[in-house]
Inverse folding.
């Protein structure tokens, strides 16, 4: 079994074309996708989104808000007149405009809802979704700046929440409670100019803002990796791996065609060992390919792989195992290399498409996101997202569940492959 | 060494073997001849353990094939008809790989591979990739790869198909050497001269049955075939031919030639020449057509071997 795998590895490394297709091609594609998804330039310099800004209020408060937004690394603010901005969006030249309406400063002082609007092109929802991720936390923090009035804001929010359900006495009592509470913790928030994003978020949550801040859970605050880069590396690496393992699996059919499979059967080897040998070989190449892709992403795009090494290694092993099973199964089912090529191209492309290798699953419709779970790509990519984007720890159950699913997929595919292989051997002989 | 008894094999509705039996002694060179589809490959596939028989028993070197296939595999070497090598590996690496599958210890395998490469005249090119070899050279490596574990029995399925005379002669030399060293060889071929040259005994298989087996002489006797003395004359008159017919019953006239069928060529040839001289016939040409496997095969199966 090991001898068979070693022989295959020797054959693989003697074939420069295979090496090129296995390693150089994915690297080129990762580079391409990383550029497309905006993951280039290292984790610290993520892509800036152009955002038009129309300040109709033109007050110190709106200027302060503009300055806050301008300080964000992810945004490139472009001041513009509202009409011009709307034209630019309609012509597809820009994605969105953020409008500060008149009364912005008054709302800050009064602690009421800010008259802010984001106008955008519906076709660019995905981009705008990413924009929102940058905008919302900053806008949520504005009432906590020097220009904001926190007690008023809280009272307004309480009144809005209660509506007619509370009488004036209750409202007055609650307002008094808010004042008292605010004064008690006042010192803690008096230095709010220097409040960090995380602390500010905590403050906002302590004042009942949790439900609004929830959707802007910023993992990026502690994450140097770009989501685009993670998507590009994981998505492309898995898709290319699937193509590679199909080629590796198809070598079984080459052996059948060239008579070496029959000759192997003459030897004292158990027939199943032949398939196990291919599985070992396929796993070795898969692990090597994935590892090299992540090392490449680290060297070229500064993807931080070293802080997540155990998780990464585990995920690489699980993904390689699942993908290898897929390759070996295809080879066991098909009767010729031509069949494998036709079948695999279709299946790999469909799996890659629905599984998120080509486009991220989060921009897909809900039903497609459910369908995507039927592809190996999905579980692999989500696992790598867990590691590099969501920063889940090694023992996190979500992360481990993905490992388990991949291991199950691999085991089922390998078992079916074994059964089909035996059936095909009998047919052959 | 090999005992085959009432071997049957069916593929769905097709009965490829209909109950064949034969024995091969230790050190014997046994030829298996038959037209395409006769059941040769099925027989060899069963003997080399990659096909399970539907019925019957086989034992190789004392091991029952059904009960102990692994031991059987260790005692046999198989040279398949197709060249089954890894073209991207060197000849030496191919030998190391194939020998390794039989559990030959690494050091011994290296020595043995080098010896075999020398034996087949390929030592100087041992590190070249097989894909750069000629067809004949590949055939040699194909055979060499079956010898590394020193098998007791060697199955050779058409080992000289489509090769150059130099490689063929080299293979013949090696095959003869192996036979002399006491290896039991089972050989299938379409070339009658090869079977006649090497085989101690021959089994003729047709339509899933062994229809005759034995040495060439035994086959001749069993077929009761006579050799033919073809005498061509300048002119053969009917009168003279009638005289000859009255004296010699087993003959046939074809224009100015007479085919005399003889069980004893030496004495009959002398008699024919003397009689022709007496009758004043001018002999142009004499040809002796011996009984060979081709004629025996034709006589037994009604088919040419390549049918």
């Amino acid at each position: 079994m090991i001898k068979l795998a070693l022989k295959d590895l020797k054959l693989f490394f003697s074939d420069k074309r295979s090496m090129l297709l296995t390693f150089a091609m994915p690297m080129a594609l990762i580079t391409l996708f990383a550029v497309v998804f905006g993951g280039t330039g290292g984790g610290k310099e993520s892509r800036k989104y152009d955002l038009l800004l129309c300040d109709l209020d033109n007050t110190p408060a709106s200027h302060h808000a503009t300055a806050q937004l301008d300080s964000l690394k992810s945004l490139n603010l472009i001041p513009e007149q509202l009409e011009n901005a709307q034209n630019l969006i309609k012509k597809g030249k820009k994605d969105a405009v953020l409008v500060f309406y008149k009364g912005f400063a008054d709302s800050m002082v009064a602690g009421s809802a800010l008259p802010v609007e984001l106008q955008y092109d519906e076709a660019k929802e995905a981009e705008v979704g990413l924009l929102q991720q940058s905008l919302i936390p900053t806008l949520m923090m504005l009432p906590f700046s020097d220009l904001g009035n926190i007690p008023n804001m809280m009272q307004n929010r309480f009144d809005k929440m209660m509506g007619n359900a509370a009488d004036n006495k209750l409202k007055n009592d609650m307002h008094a409670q808010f004042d008292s509470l605010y004064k008690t913790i006042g010192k803690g928030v008096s230095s709010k100019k220097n409040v960090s994003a995380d602390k500010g978020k905590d403050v906002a949550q302590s004042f009942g803002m949790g439900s609004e801040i929830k959707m802007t859970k910023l993992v990026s605050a502690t994450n140097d990796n770009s989501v685009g880069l993670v998507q590009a590396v994981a998505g492309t690496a898995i898709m290319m791996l699937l193509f590679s393992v199909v080629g590796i699996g198809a070598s079984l059919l080459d052996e059948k065609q060239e008579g070496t499979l029959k000759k192997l059967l003459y030897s004292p080897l158990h027939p199943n060992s032949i398939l196990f040998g291919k599985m070992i070989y396929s796993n070795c190449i898969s692990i090597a390919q994935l590892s090299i892709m992540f090392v490449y992403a680290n060297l070229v795009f500064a993807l931080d792989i070293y802080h997540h090494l155990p998780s990464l290694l585990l995920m690489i092993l699980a993904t390689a195992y699942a993908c290898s099973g897929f390759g070996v199964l295809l080879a066991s089912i098909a009767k010729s290399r031509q069949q494998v090529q036709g079948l695999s191209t279709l299946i790999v492309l469909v799996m890659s498409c629905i599984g998120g290798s080509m486009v991220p699953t989060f921009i897909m419709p809900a039903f497609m996101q459910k369908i995507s779970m039927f592809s190996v790509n999905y579980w692999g990519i989500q696992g790598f997202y867990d590691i590099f984007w969501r920063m889940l720890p090694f023992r996190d159950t979500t992360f481990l569940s993905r490992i388990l699913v991949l291991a199950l997929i691999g085991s089922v595919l390998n078992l079916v492959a074994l059964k089909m292989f035996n059936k095909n051997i009998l047919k052959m002989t | 060494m090999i005992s085959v008894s009432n071997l049957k094999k069916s593929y769905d509705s097709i009965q490829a073997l209909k109950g064949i039996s034969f024995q091969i002694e230790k050190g014997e060179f046994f030829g298996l001849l038959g037209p395409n589809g006769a059941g040769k490959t099925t027989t060899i596939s069963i003997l080399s353990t990659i096909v399970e028989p539907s019925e019957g028993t086989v034992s190789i070197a004392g091991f029952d094939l059904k009960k102990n296939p692994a031991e059987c595999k260790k005692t046999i070497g198989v040279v398949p008809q197709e060249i089954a090598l890894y073209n991207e590996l060197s000849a030496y690496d191919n030998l190391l790989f194939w020998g390794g599958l039989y559990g030959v210890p690494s050091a011994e395998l290296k020595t043995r591979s080098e010896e075999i490469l020398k034996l087949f005249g390929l030592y100087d090119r041992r590190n070249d990739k097989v894909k750069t070899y000629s067809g004949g050279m590949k055939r040699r490596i194909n055979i060499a790869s079956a010898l590394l574990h020193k098998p007791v029995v060697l199955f050779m399925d058409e080992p000289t198909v489509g090769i150059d005379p130099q490689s063929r002669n080299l293979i013949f030399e090696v095959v003869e050497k192996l036979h002399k060293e006491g290896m039991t060889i089972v050989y299938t071929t379409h070339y009658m001269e090869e079977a006649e040259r090497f085989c101690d005994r021959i089994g003729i298989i047709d339509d899933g049955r062994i229809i005759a087996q034995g040495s060439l002489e035994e086959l001749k006797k069993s077929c009761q075939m006579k050799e033919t003395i073809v005498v061509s004359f300048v002119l053969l008159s009917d009168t003279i031919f009638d005289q000859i017919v009255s004296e010699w019953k087993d003959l046939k006239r074809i224009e100015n030639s007479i085919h005399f069928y003889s069980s004893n060529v030496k004495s009959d040839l002398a008699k024919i020449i003397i009689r022709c001289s007496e009758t004043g016939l001018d002999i142009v040409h004499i040809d002796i057509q011996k009984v060979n496997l081709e004629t025996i095969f034709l006589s037994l199966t009604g088919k040419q071997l390549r049918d």
About this structure: The two ends of chain B are 31 Å apart (CA to CA).
